Amino acid sequence: MLLILRKSVPLHRLPCRRPLKPFLPPPSCPRRLPLLPRAAMGSVAGDAARLAYPPARRDDSVVDNYHSVQIPDPYRWLEDPDSEETKEFVARQAELAETVLSGCPDRENLRREVTRLFDHPRHAAPFRRGNKYFHFHNTGLQAQSVLYMQDDLDGKAEVLLDPNTLSKDGTVALSTYSISEDGNYIAYGLSESGSDWVSIHVMDVNNKQPMPDKLSWVKFSSISWTHDGKGFFYGRYPAPREEGDLDAGTETNINLNHQIYYHILGSNQSEDILCWKDPEHPKYSFGASVTEDGKYITLGIYEGCDPVNKLYYCEISTLPRGIEGFRERQEMLPFVKLIDNFDAQYQVVANDGDEFTFLTNKNAPKNKLVRVNIKNPELWTDVLPEHEKDVLESADAVNNDQLLVCYMSDVKHILQIRDLRTGNLIHHLPLEIGSVSEISCRREDKEVFIGFTSFLSPGIIYRCNLAPTIPEMKMFREISVPGFDRTSFQVKQVFVPSKDGTKIPMFIMSKKDINLDGSHPTLLYGYGGFNISITPSFSVGRVVLCKNMGFVVCVANIRGGGEYGEEWHKAGALAMKQNCFDDFAACAEFLISNGYTSSRRLCIEGGSNGGLLVAASINQRPDLFGCALAHVGVMDMLRFHRFTIGHAWTTDYGCSDKEEEFQWLIKYTLQHVLCTSTENSPQTNPIIGRIDRKSGHGAGRPTQKLIDEAADRYSFMAKMLGAQWTE
């Protein structure tokens, strides 16, 4: 089994497909330390016995009392990532992992082929600010994508911001950005080595010169400019007391007392205006966004990762001395409480003055659009009712009085043009079976850019002209991968009955016309949490597995995700978490019973919440899998809430501090059962931890690290499953 761990820093969930319209959903995507499986994994018997596992000190004096249940925690000392003992433990585990990985025969074949297929130009959708267009581009193997600007879409593109110049190894990444309305300034956040801590900087777009502004201790923040271009809103935490000696990349202190500030361009961060805080609720997090007309600032308030939020607003134009006037008054902005409970989610879609259109799941688990006059909030009107089957994923105001609506239907996206006032359908936009990865538009735009991907499509950007009576949708750019022939592969979707009879969607990708004789090495991927949907997407690594090693690659859309709305999410959360593991096991059993593979040739993979899924699955069904890849998983289910932003994940998992929820968690938390010596252990195959000490939870990793990790984890898997390389 392979456990892939990185620094203990969590990742927040960023806006999906609408990166140009600032909105801050709550933090999510958790992980921490690994569980050990209780029986053999893999098909290379005896590997573990030949390995010299580094000794790990057990401190049996550490025992916690959870509601009269005694729980030993002998490795508590590993919770200090900066101690010399922990550093030594990590170094020796990394050495052991390298010993095993260097002996995987196809490691270099995988690295070479993944590198070759990765080396292709990639573009993101363009967007406009002021009189300029902007877009991201990667020539192929650049560590980080580069932000370009141009006067028009046919003009010469100039580099505006190249993160690759900021570090030798590409580990400084652009984590967030926002360009002012007039296009004159860009505020951007930089993250080092995968840390969630961000420093915000400002650049003059016209002369490409950096401004002196630097904002620290920023985390889980969007950036939203006021339309006068004087400054922007952002979120941060108070600086830790031990700031001078603290490594912002490895500290694990709990994150409390999130705050919203307004930064005036050219000023020192110490002069920033505190716009909102809530010391009575230190675990709340906030997101501030200026409406597209510039009239209002909206404030989203979150208590965890559930799709629910409070929503307040402040009318900027009514402030007598503007936002700057609050610098001297030492008062927070006078927000009006429109929604002051956590009953549902509310996202701003558009506003005409005081009349707002929201996307909400209020009495609509698959989402709907509603409208209200915020000055007269007693009357709410449905604009687009909840669909009976499909999930309303997003809605964007375009072409002044229209909506671009994205539905998810059985884990595949559908695009429609609807009337903003009535919600009535105007047009269906043609789209292959796959995922909308990005939508670039603003309400004033008659032209929209749409990013698309699928298992067999590396990426297409469509340019949709909404001015004609019938929209014109043309290909603007298509990503081409050298050596990839989509006609050699097939993808199908099946629906697998789970333990309780619920039908679980699963995509199966393979070479065309394979024989279902149970012989194929197979990779099964899952996530199942936090209302996050795993939709079809292109992966170079998975293509190489199918093409060169004969793999069948599967993605299971188990409960806990958002594939069928909030009811689907809740059916895999809290007391119902076991459904996730049952769904995943059912998909594995389907692949075996239908002749795709056998248990000894089946590997499971997941990251973050999916890492927990993999760990729980091998604990509960060690007979069902031949290998497991668990990336950056949440493993310490009794203590995760005590570190960084872990407290936000209790909305999906529960919290061991509460007796009822402790009983949920302890059922799938395995304790020390493996024996204390390799000679007598039932574990006969390797358990290793691949630890990258210059990466975080996953965001912002440079291209070379992505390639190296793919080569390592998949060569380990190939060895465990007995898969062979073919050219």
From TrEMBL:
Source species, domain of life: Eukaryota
Ranges for domain Peptidase S9 prolyl oligopeptidase catalytic: 536-672
Every Peptidase S9A N-terminal domain range: 54-467
Matching InterPro entries: AB_hydrolase_fold (IPR029058), Pept_S9A_N (IPR023302), Peptidase_S9_cat (IPR001375), Peptidase_S9A (IPR002470), Prolyl_oligopep/macrocyclase (IPR051167)
Coiled-coil features, chain-numbered ranges: none
EC nos: 3.4.21.-
Pfam families: Peptidase_S9 (PF00326), Peptidase_S9_N (PF02897)
UniProt keywords, alphabetically: Hydrolase, Protease, Serine protease
GO process terms (BP): proteolysis
GO molecular function: oligopeptidase activity; serine-type endopeptidase activity
GO cellular component terms, A-Z: cytosol
Keyword Amino-acid biosynthesis: no
Record carries keyword Hydrolase: yes
Catalysis: reaction(s): Hydrolysis of Pro-|-Xaa >> Ala-|-Xaa in oligopeptides
Family that this chain belongs to: Belongs to the peptidase S9A family.
Name of the protein in its database record: Prolyl endopeptidase
Lineage: Eukaryota, Viridiplantae, Streptophyta, Embryophyta, Tracheophyta
